[in-house]
Specification:
3 helices
């Protein structure tokens, strides 16, 4: 599970979407890249939990 979540976070940080912007914000603030990746992975878990809980699709 951790490997899949890490790969999803790595892909998300390269995107131009919400999570990619969040990654760039964290790194611009001086946070280490690995810490920013873990923050994105946690954000993915929170988003997935909310989608499952509310039974609604994710909207950016």
């Amino acid at each position: 599970m951790r490997v899949a979540l890490y790969m999803a976070a790595l892909t998300a940080c390269r995107s131009t979407g919400l999570l990619g912007q969040f990654f760039r914000t964290l790194t611009a603030a001086g946070k280490p890249k690995k810490l920013a990746l873990v923050a994105i992975a946690r954000k993915i878990i929170v988003i997935a939990n909310a989608v499952l809980r509310d039974q609604t699709p994710f909207k950016t």
